[in-house]
C-alpha cells in the first residue's frame, strides 16, 4: 500500500470575474507522505490559500487532480467529498472560524457530531480529551468571544484533531498571534504531530515553523520556485 496521504497532480486554477480571468495557480504538483510535515511559503497573494482550499477539497481546481487517501475529489459528489474530508482531514484557518454561539466544547465536538454513528457521550469525552491536551480543560463552556486569540487557536486545533485525521492542513495558523503565543502554538503543533503520527501541511510566514518541516515549498507566480515533485 502506498504511504502517500495527499497527492495533487498538475493543479491549475483560474478565477473569472466576467471580463478578465486571472491564473492564480499555473502548474503545481505535490505529495505528502504519512507522518510527513510539509510547509508552504510564499508572498502574500501568491495563491497559497487558494491552493490549500483545493488540496483540502473545499474548492475544485480548473485542471488537475487531487487525491486524498487515494481517492480523487473530482470523482465524488459534494456529500462524498465532505465525508472523505471528515474521515481524513483536519483544517485550521488563520482566523479560527469557530462558531461564535457555541462553547469551546461544542465547537470541538462538531466534526464528530456530524457523523451518522455519533454517540453523544463518547463524542463529549473525546472533545474534552482534546481540549485538555491543548491546555483548555478550564475553558470548556466558554464561547469564542470569551477566549483570547491564542486560546481560540487552541480550540481550533482541538477541533481539527478530534477526529484523529491522517492529515492536518493549516493556513497561517500562527499568523494572527503575537510572537510568544505563536511560539506556543508552534510547539504544540509539533508535539501533536508526533503524538498523533499524522501528516501536516502548513502555509506559514513563520520561518521557524517553515524550517522545521521535512519539506519546504516556495510558491512563486503560481508554481513552485524550486520544483521538488
Ligand atoms: N474567489 C476568488 N475570485 C477571484 N480572485 C481570487 C479569489 N480567491 C483568490 N483570488 C485571487 O487569487 C490571488 C491569490 O490569493 P490567495 O490564494 O488568497 O493568496 P495568498 O493566500 O498566498 O495570500 C489573489 O490575487 C486573489 O485576489
Ligand atoms: Mg492566504
UniProtKB/TrEMBL annotation:
Its EC number is 7.6.2.-. GO terms for cellular component: plasma membrane. It is a peripheral membrane protein. GO terms for molecular function: ATP binding; ATP hydrolysis activity; transmembrane transporter activity. Keywords: ATP-binding, Cell inner membrane, Cell membrane, Lipoprotein, Membrane, Nucleotide-binding, Translocase, Transport. CDD domains: ABC_MJ0796_LolCDE_FtsE. Part of the ABC transporter complex LolCDE involved in the translocation of mature outer membrane-directed lipoproteins, from the inner membrane to the periplasmic chaperone, LolA. Responsible for the formation of the LolA-lipoprotein complex in an ATP-dependent manner. This is Lipoprotein-releasing system ATP-binding protein LolD. It comes from Acinetobacter rudis CIP 110305. The gene is lolD.
